[in-house]
Specification:
Helix content: 40-55%
Oligomer: single chain
Strand order of the largest sheet: 3-2-1-4-5-6-7
Bound molecules: nicotinamide-adenine-dinucleotide
Number of strands: 7
Number of helices: 7
CATH topology: Rossmann fold
CATH superfamily: NAD(P)-binding Rossmann-like Domain
Distance between the termini: 46 Å
Radius of gyration: 18 Å
Shape: globular
Order of helices and strands: EHEEHEHEHHEHHE
CATH architecture: 3-Layer(aba) Sandwich
């Protein structure tokens, strides 16, 4: 007997996954985890390396070309993880407009541009997952990081709004807001700052990229991720408890 309700599409493995910023740190760990899970992964990164599609996520035509190349390799995209990002530091009073704009362009506009590339594929398929890497600093702010915190808070707002737009098509959009994770992004920060920061953390230590990757796999999983819509999950050593 038919009920008139179309069967919900399910995708669990062998999916076409794009990870931006997958050349390093959290993105690299996430790309490796999806590959180990049995998905087909294209890595987009600004830094050229073997097997990487070179893309500047802040540049519209570069993003368009990068996703065309990814689709050529993988077909329509099922899962997008936006991990590309950069971090610089300056008090607001001393911050140049160029520094502000660079951060907003890469860390926020980049996510807009990449999401826009995949939403039509996902809607057509009736299944899709977008996972945006924000930061706990988008929730709590950080001294010397007004540009970064603004961009990361923007990612949370973008995620909620897009989630509302596409959830009816079974496309789920969520954020991960990690705490401090040992990657090249934080390598330049002084040992003194790191030591003081660790004392603040209930776990007393920074996380590792492979401790963040399983959260991305969870959000992409079906049925495990099916009820997360516009959420911000926080693998953050206890730094923020929303
Ligand atoms: N490490 C942390 O403590 C931490 C905490 C919270 C959030 N995050 C976020 O996690 C994400 C990944 O950071 P990470 O720590 O793995 O850093 P990372 O520096 O190890 O990796 C970032 C990657 O993004 C790429 N990238 C930078 N600008 C790009 C651009 N314009 N176009 C394409 N690729 C670009 C870099 O080449 C690099 O491979 C970032 O969005 C970062 O803001 C990191």
């Amino acid at each position: 007997m038919t009920t008139g309700t179309p069967e919900r599409v399910t995708k669990t493995v062998g999916r076409a996954v794009v990870v931006t910023g997958g050349g390093s740190g959290i993105g690299a760990a996430i790309a490796a985890s999806f590959t180990a899970h049995g998905d087909r992964v294209a890595v987009l990164d600004r830094t050229a390396a073997a097997g990487i599609i070179v893309v500047d996520v802040g540049d519209e035509s570069s993003v368009r070309a990068g996703f065309a190349a990814a689709r050529e390799q993988l077909g329509p995209i099922d899962v997008l993880v936006n991990s590309a990002g950069l971090l610089t530091e300056s008090d607001l009073a001393d911050m140049s407009l160029a520094m502000w704009n660079e951060t907003l362009t890469v860390d926020l506009t980049g996510i807009f541009l990449c999401c826009r590339e995949v939403v039509p594929d996902m809607r057509r398929a009736g299944w899709g997952r977008i996972i945006n890497i924000s930061s706990q600093l988008g929730i709590k702010g950080g001294r010397g990081l007004s540009h970064y915190s603004a961009a990361k808070a923007g990612v949370i707002g973008l995620t909620k709004s897009l989630a509302l737009e596409v959830a009816p098509d079974n496309v789920l959009v969520n954020c991960i807001a990690p705490g401090p994770i040992e990657t090249p992004l934080v390598a330049g920060i002084s040992q003194q700052w790191k030591a003081a920061k660790m004392l603040e953390l209930p776990l007393g230590r920074f996380g590792r990229p492979e401790e963040v990757a399983p959260t991305a796999l969870l959000l992409a999983s079906d049925p495990g991720g099916n009820l997360f819509v516009g959420q911000t999950l926080g693998p953050n050593s206890g730094d923020v408890m929303p």
